[in-house]
Structures
1.
Amino acid sequence: MNLSMAEAGMLGVLDVSVSEEALTVELSDGRTLSVPIGGYPRLAYVREEERASWTIIDGGQGTHWQELDEDVSLTGLLAGLASREGQLSLQRWLDRRSEDREFLAAP
């Protein structure tokens, strides 16, 4: 699918939900787009409350999870693109999260 930024600009993200199975986005034209969560590993590895802590960015052209340092663009979703994060990058991120939790849990 070839989708220009101008064409995507006519659409916008209205709402987002993330379950253990899918990332679901409600669009301004009434459509709902749902993609497997496996394509977005940072969303797949976090708690429900972290998945729910998102904001709309770029005038509806994407979503951002501040705590996860994760952005998902509407253009990418419409084109069927998953996260481009590599395994090494993901593992480093998971390791940092684990270290942070150990530090926070220490008395």
2.
Amino acid sequence: MKQARHQRILELIEERPVETQEELAALLRESGYHVTQATISRDIRELKLTKIAYEGGRQKYAALTAGDAELSERIIRVFRDAVIKLDYSQNIVVIRTLNGMGMAVGFAIDSMESSDILGSIAGDDTVFCVARTHSQAAEFMQKLSRIISA
């Protein structure tokens, strides 16, 4: 059931722009899937969906895969366009983004596969990254600052 639902989600976001989790849930229900908000959120994370800009500055869900030839360039562009502020405390790096871009930036960070970062959690406009040490957090923040200013 989960695999079929995931396939349907990918089909739906390819067929039309899907802007919100609520819209995705409604489309899945129309397709015969009984889903909750928690299920949709988990599916989005598992499928590594992110929001991308499209016509009129609006955002829609898209599937980005590691096999994408332009992935690293797009990730850097998303990061530069979406990040508002960087800060850190102890071993936690906090990244503030434009509203709705937290997951895209979280995906970009996870795709960097930095050995400095143990993991990250992305919300709507904030990403938390946990480093092993204070110095690794500082180094990672400097790396991100260089990406933004380059």
3.
Amino acid sequence: MIIKNGNVFTQNFKFEKLDVEIKDDMICSVGSAEGEEVVEAEGMYVIPGLIDQHTHGCVGFDWSDGNPDEMAQMADFYAANGVTTVAGTVTTIPIPRMEEAMKAIKCFSDEQKINGRGARVRGINLESSFFSHAKKGAHLEEYLLKPDAELVRRFRDASGDLLRIVNVAPEIEGGMDFIKELKDEMVVSVAHTSADYETVLEAYEAGAAQVTHFFNAMTSFLHRAPGAPGAVFDSELNAELICDGIHVHPAVIRTVFKIMADRVIMISDSIRACGLSDGQYVLGDLDVTVKDGKATLADGTIAGSSASLMSDLRSAVSFGVPMEQVVKAATYNPAKTLGMADQIGSIAKGYQADIVLLDEKLNVKKVYIAGKEIQ
């Protein structure tokens, strides 16, 4: 199959009018190609499938519930909206339920290798438990724990090594040692933290690789107290960023991309409400109200997002961020986090054929996962 005459997002992170040749599940050439099976992409953007490394759920379901039938419906929704890879995100719930969720996600991922259904689960993100009480956000306080590397390894074993990202507030007791112990085993993300500028820099030096949902559930950036954001700007920490315009103001989104576009990882942080209407939902064991697309707890605390990653991509572009930067932040950059940047997240020879075609208004027209068009 040949995707012909599209504006292809290349490994140079630029759009070029090229052809993409696909054989079986792989991209076999990018350039000029001829063949009998042609998909005409004139006037369309041809981008890698989006990668959402931080998503709790969608269409009424949540990865933490550990239900494979519901996971299949989530995978279908992600795929229909241009997301071809996800890291199912497990939130703060009791330990036995977290462990069961790990096992269930692993089983679902194994099934996908056989049935090829929906967006592929290529990781698990444990956004859970090891947080500051002051910055807990939408995490139930009674479930918060001291950092425990052995517990995380137990979860990793239950997940069949799918657990790729673990979150921690570095300032709490045992936080720094936790980072040092796990930094070579998985991505450690600074999250739900009261840490100041110096402490976040110390966490970076200890081995933390990124921060979770930049600007949210962390100290503020002030001119005499730069806080966690200042440490991100002053280091090589990557930053997850929610670009729905609710979690972070569009002006700040533009500024972040201007300062550190190569280190931005766009995420949805989506919850059950994604793909559905306003109403009452649950995140973990907390009640969430979604009104005008904004998800909050009863006290007004923001509780995840109701927007998809593709919706956020469109929003970021509408805010004035160059599309090339946005696409890279939603494809190549998260592929690096998952340790798969040599397999997915780019349109290049030898990569898996996870490809999305968008029209001029960035509407999804076609989605291919492993070379097969999803219906």
4.
Amino acid sequence: MKQYHIALDETQIARYVILPGDPGRCEAIARYLDGPAFVARNREYTTWEGYLGGERVLVTSTGIGGPSAAIALEDLAALGADTFIRAGTCGGIALEVCGGDVVIASGAVRHEGTSREYAPLEYPAVPGFAVLNALARAAGELALNHHIGVVHCKDSFYGQHSPARMPVADELLYKWEAWRRLGVLASEMESAALFTAAAALGVRAGACFSVVWNKDRRAQGLPDDERHDPADAVRLAVRAMELLIESGG
């Protein structure tokens, strides 16, 4: 049965799926695979396919934020997909995280709403262990300047980037300082929803991000490149998926 949102059916599914946010990135990511081909497009959900080690792999965009990412995960899992890696971008929080680095999420702050409809707030948003291990191993193989740790996941892009103009500015600024003091590496918008929904569905998910910039470094007058190309996160996701396929996992 064709899924309403992603416009795929059982004949088009694969176990392994790479999840960018931007539909425009799907074709470029699929070019890292063997035999890339367009599959379907509906709303923010564009899907391409290719092969790694002879195994079919999908590249499906999720749009921006947890609600649409969870919809993609639900529809893909309903058809039989069970292993997901998000490849996207983030903004640095910890001062050691610079523009152009790569962050691998070992957990996510659930500062968003989608995951609350899957699990109580006491439940942690964490990636699948095998997926996390594959990402860590791939980052070492590729010699990427990378960081592994907790990320902050939110719903409002401008709540992070312009907190002082929000009616709840005091709360946003207070919590941002808490994340910083707790060693949270970076901020993005999908991981907590994906990790929590994946746990509820009995599938596994991981996430890696190319760092665009770090506004906290800039606020302290520290050097910080601005990088909008997610190529390193994409290469990392593809190699990690290949490792998972090679292991039979």
